[in-house]
Design goal:
Blueprint lengths: L3 E6 L3 H10 L4 E7 L13 E4 L6 H7 L5 E4 L6 H7 L9 H7 L2 H10 L7 E5 H12 L3 E5 L9 E4 L2 H11 L3 E6 L3 E11 L5 E3 L3 E6 L2 E7 L4 H17 L4 E10 L2 E8 L17 H9 L13 E7 L12 E3 L9 E8 L3 H16 L4
Parallel strand pairs: 1-2, 1-4, 2-3
Antiparallel strand pairs: 5-8, 6-7, 6-8, 9-10, 9-11, 9-13, 11-12, 12-15, 13-14, 15-17, 16-17
Bound molecules: adenosine-5'-diphosphate and magnesium ion.
Magnesium ion (MG) binds next to loops.
């Protein structure tokens, strides 16, 4: 069988995992590094092309080995760059989706246009509008910059007038969205894939716990058939409304009134790293299958599984586990260095073992 070829924009751990999971499917990879981006994660996995300012898209496409399709490992990528490749091959997910996902207000409006429930929100820019929005929505509220927010960065949770006074200069004059704080029991995500010819498969719901705004622990399946059905409905709606191709993640709050959508990620997602162990096909394999229009792999996960992120820690744990992934990055405080996966037929045992794993990795209970 002749090799199929995919180019990935970005050279981080998500690109690494897509390539590792795509190679066994007979796919060759190339990677586009932007602005002096560190390429350690993808060394040895395919051709790495460093982009130069003003480079001609066709020359870049040639340098990437004339791929069949181009995808990205992140949503913070130039939409113009994505569009510039479209004369040469499909770009999945389509740039119109990236454009929505990288701007929180556009994203919120797109979600509500599709009839999905989100927290009450208001657009606000500058002190006057921020105060008005918080006044209207009440405390606690979340002020989030429309652009460049990830892992809890560029957002401020305001619980009081004093918090608001402190957040206003930090938010500055950038475009923001202000959201009412949702009182949630927990956070969950659903991840699914849609292939170019429209086949859809979703993984079970995942429960997510964060530390300082960054994902720490994901556990699946979150056993609530009613919520799973709702989440599958939201996911399928977006996949179809957006004519989406590839893997999409939808983050939700479990509130008293059901599932409320927080945000989406138009890519493979950290809360789906557990899919390496359990389902027949990981989210990375299914993303590659979807964009190449291959049949999607099985997403069922009969045995509970958990993933603990290694944030600013890079020493493999001694405790029993089902796999340690180290991304090969230089150690920095809070940086995603790798993850550990645990599997256990007994959910209570799995939760207990996850807590012990966190304690070992971080030297304390979190
Ligand atoms: N409206 C909200 N109500 C309650 N908690 C929120 C709200 N918005 C964000 N959060 C909390 O902040 C975290 C990060 O916010 P999110 O919008 O997901 O940004 P990021 O892109 O940084 O992941 C969420 O996972 C949740 O814990
Ligand atoms: Mg988030």
């Amino acid at each position: 069988m002749s090799k199929r070829r995919v180019a990935i924009i970005g050279c981080g751990q998500l690109a690494q995992m897509m390539a590792q999971e795509g190679q066994p499917l007979g796919v060759e990879f190339s990677f586009l590094a932007e602005n002096g981006e560190n390429t350690d994660c993808v060394k040895g996995l395919g051709t790495i092309v460093e982009m130069e300012p003003g480079q001609d898209p066709e020359a870049l496409y040639q340098a990437l080995g004339r791929p069949e399709v181009i995808t990205s490992e992140r949503e913070q990528v130039s939409v113009d760059l994505l569009r510039s490749f479209q004369p040469f091959c499909p770009v999945y997910p389509d740039p119109h989706i990236t454009e929505k996902a990288q701007h929180r207000l556009r994203e919120k409006r797109a979600l509500t246009d599709s009839g999905l429930p989100v927290a009450p929100f208001a657009a606000a820019q500058g002190e006057k509008e921020l105060r008005e929005a918080v006044d209207q929505l009440g405390y606690p509220a979340f002020i989030k910059s429309c652009e460049n927010g990830y892992d809890g960065k560029n957002q401020w949770c305001v619980k009081s007038a004093a918090d608001l006074d402190a957040a206003i200069p930090q938010a500055g004059d950038q475009e923001c969205v202000v959201e009412a704080g949702v009182n949630f029991a927990c956070e969950v995500s659903i991840i699914g894939a849609r292939s170019a010819s429209g086949e859809i498969k979703a993984y079970p719901l995942t429960e997510n716990r964060h530390r300082n705004g960054t994902l720490l622990l994901s556990t699946a399946p979150y056993d609530n058939p009613e919520l799973l059905k709702a989440a599958e409905g939201y996911l399928a709606t977006l996949l179809k409304d957006w004519d989406y191709v590839g893997v999409l993640a939808v983050e939700c709050f479990v509130s008293e009134s059901g599932l409320i959508v927080n945000e989406v990620a138009p890519r493979v997602h950290n809360s789906g790293h557990w899919t390496f162990v359990g389902p027949e096909a990981s989210q990375f394999a299914n993303h590659i299958r979807a964009i190449l229009d291959m049949p999607l792999g099985d997403t069922a996960c009969p045995v509970p599984v958990a993933m603990v992120n290694m944030l600013g820690v890079d020493v493999a744990p001694k405790q029993d586990n089902d796999g340690v992934w180290l991304y090969g990055k230089a150690l920095r405080p809070g940086r995603k260095m790798g993850h550990v996966i645990l599997q256990d037929p007994d959910m209570d045992q799995l939760r207990e073992r996850s807590e012990k794993m966190i304690e070992e990795l971080y030297g304390e209970k979190i």
